[in-house]
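User: quick one, fold this
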Amino acid sequence: MRNLRAALVLALLLTVGVVATGCGGGSSSSASAPTGPATVASAPSAPTTTSPQGGTGGSNGTGALTAEAQATATGDVPDNQVFLTFANRSAGYSMKYPQGWAQAGGGRRVTIQDKNNLVRITVETAGAPSLGGVSNAMKRLQASTSSLRYDPPTVVSLKGKRAIKVVYSTESAPNPVTGKRVKLIVDRYYVTGVRKVAVVDLGTPVGVDNVDAYRLMIESFRWR
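Assistant:
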């Protein structure tokens, strides 16, 4: 009997040891939470405006220039004005502009201005525009800009290179104090590159003479 009790005690001790060992192993290991697939955020691509082949070169996002009624009137560009070259490497062109005029924007849409002397260059992915396509674009602009008036587009030569020109006018919103509006006369040029078109708007308030300065600017336009 004494030997039987000893055997039972020994068996009980062995069982307790095994259980204790199993519990100890479970507590020493940490469980990892399941990991889902990694997500890589891509930077948004720059928006690209596209015009139909042989189309408008101004149907998507190239709105009409308008003056600001509260902007101080700007005089004529002087004959001794110094011009600098603006090189837009991302859009692939260069053009001269008057020193001291402020630049804004970048890439495919840039503005250069001095008060209500306004210049805007918009580059669109497009084929060569036609006179009919430009005329249709101006009709759409007129529908969205009630003050817009325009002359029929014409083909012009810029230093021997073909371009399309259309002259239009717009009026600003009334000045909140005086009620006066500023009328802007805009020379718009469509300059064709390789699978792209630059829409160049050169705006001048009525009574200001920028003819020579603006001719120099548009004739200096170069695709790079």
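User: anything notable?
Assistant: The first helix runs from residue 2 to 28.
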